[in-house]
Hints:
Helix content is 17%, strand content 28%. It contains six helices and 13 strands. The chain has one domain. Zinc ion (ZN) is lined by residues 77, 146-147, 164-165, 235-237, 244.
Amino acid sequence: xxxxxxxxxxxxxxxxxxxxxxxxxxxxxxxxxxxxxxxxxxxxxxxxxxxxxxxxxxxxxxxxxxxxxxxxxxxxxxxxxxxxxxxxxxxxxxxxxxxxxxxxxxxxxxxxxxxxxxxxxxxxxxxxxxxxxxxxxxxxxxxxxxxxxxxxxxxxxxxxxxxxxxxxxxxxxxxxxxxxxxxxxxxxxxxxxxxxxxxxxxxxxxxxxxxxxxxxxxxxxxxxxxxxxxxxxxxxxxxxxxxxxxxxxxxxxxxxxxxxxxxxxxxxxxxxxxxxxxxxxxx
Length: 283
Ligand SMILES: [Zn+2]
């Protein structure tokens, strides 16, 4: 039972919101420079991520990586690390606070404290036409965490499923860096849900997913701001139209391609410095 509303309830509800992190003072990425550099770029690597599996890839600072839907509608769960220091990893929560619940062109994937600098910048998105649908759904969210066997066990009464994105990312990272899986698991983090269409229900505020509008050929492309190690899982939810954490959904591969611009194409550009805060915390 809810409490009775106070007399001034409507007035309190009518207070206008303020943006928690106004981003006018955030330095904008030089998209024109990135695009000019991209026009000179050649493909130097590609990795196919099989359905219900994950694969790692490496991208140098100043290079580009593209994630493409191939064969059928499929969402992907993306982790990013500083290639030289796994403790600097993508910080989904702060990225959400800065850019909103879903990412698009010009938005950055920010790294964890104490670094808090851009790891990658989105430079192209063939689903940018989607906008916000009638359910409040948008694509490429930083809300969901990744499907995982622990939550699955909670909700299914202890059932084990080993191809959730969390486990896929753990196996891929363990293999890539030669680490025991239990140690690699600690480096796996909340993801960018590439191509996934999600929102919150208006009545209960619950996280929802729906069939992704992605089709083969659609892609999301990033500029690597520092040397990156990435891992991408082709989610067992497929297009996430029905369920995840099972073998029920139709699943397809995802393609990751890396492109290197010509020498000198990024004249004047430097990888971002670590955050300037001195870490003294008032002591
Ligand atoms: Zn998943």
